[in-house]
Amino acid sequence: MAAAGAGVDDRLVGRPGASEAYALKTERGWTYRNGIDFTVKAGEHNATNGAAVIEYTTRKGEEPGEHVHPTEDEMFYVLAGALTFTCGDRTFDVEAGGFVFLPRGIPHDYTIRSDGPVRLLAITAPPREPGEGWGGFVGGFEMDGDIVSQPGDE
Predict the structure, then answer these.
(1) How far apart are CA 78 and CA 125, in angstroms?
(2) In the chain, what is the greatest distance between 2 CA atoms, to the nearest angstrom?
(3) Cα dihedral: 143, 147, 151, 154 (round 10)
(4) Is 25-128 assigned to CATH 2.60.120.10?
(5) Other beta carbons within 10 Å of 99
(6) DSSP run (H or E) holding 76
(7) What is the pTM for the complete model shown?
(8) CA 26 from centroid of its chain's CA atoms
(9) pLDDT tens profile 93-132
(10) Phi and psi of 141, rounded to 5°?
(11) Nearest CA to 98 among 114, 117, 121, 115?
(12) What is the rounded radius of gyration, in angstroms, for the C-alpha atoms of the chain?
């Protein structure tokens, strides 16, 4: 784990180093308040991973408003609730178990349709140039596996 000292931001103390494996129990992580509480599961700072992951609960009236991420793609997996995401001129109704991908550089927003709390898992990742991937196991499925279903097959 990181230790406090020269060049280490106190907000990052206790986070695993870039190459350390770790597990988090339910509802655990590094929680930061920025209007609402966001729990970081895999962070962007002090890490070499290619994605950051946060979990949070939000309600009607706490939507972020339209905004743009110039440096990262953003993905949401809806754990509970129902939302409408807007990205550019496209709109997506997503409920628990649903997923949405929002590319960098395009204004986007969401509106909460549920009356109760909405739980989201948000993943951000820096963009890469199109190509062969980075040699990970998901790329192996995509290149060598047999596709058995895809969006639009419903």
Answers:
(1) 18
(2) 55
(3) 180
(4) yes
(5) 12
(6) strand 73-80
(7) 0.83
(8) 17
(9) 999 999 999 999 999 999 999 999 999 999 999 877 777 6
(10) -60, -45
(11) 121
(12) 17
